[in-house]
Amino acid sequence: MTISKTKIQEILDNLNAEYPDAGCALDHKNVFELTIAVALSAQTTDKSVNKVTPALFAAYPTPEALAKADENDIIQLIRTIGMYKTKSRNIIALARKLVTDFDGVVPGSYDALITLPGVGRKTANVVLAEGFGEQHIAVDTHVFRVTNRIGIVCEKDVLKTELALMKALPENMWTRAHHLFIFHGRNCCSARKPACDRCPIAHICKRVDVD
Question: Smaller CB count within 10 Å for the chain: N or C?
């Protein structure tokens, strides 16, 4: 059985007090950089992505520039992150599609975003939330683990978790909640050894192991 709406609001309030600075951890200056950074962050830490993007964006500051890049040059710039070969191909292809299909501008609709190479549901939700100011819930490994473990939702996959969270959480808190759950997952509710003794929501948590 999942947690009541009243308890969910208490969870959000407590996490908001615990992590007042929770927000997008990927460094970016515009929506194009955000889109590339999120695409690069799959199965890689944000910290690792932030180490490679300054040189990447300095060399290829626009979709037009990245669209003309040589794949081997991109590989050299991002080879310290996971799946760097696939990601090198994807971000070049992404940039080319932006140029050919969207006049070099990142589109602001979900349906258009997921047509871009390397952009899936999570990336599209992050771009719409952070780049366009819309309310979205992007479910990564932290959000999936935390929300199912504490009992806000009870789902077996990422998509069902996202849809369930959209029903369980107040819409004006979707984006904020996304960041709060990520920060809680990184700082307290880890996969192997959650720090329940110092958890600000331990008195509400149903503690369901989902790993």
Answer: N
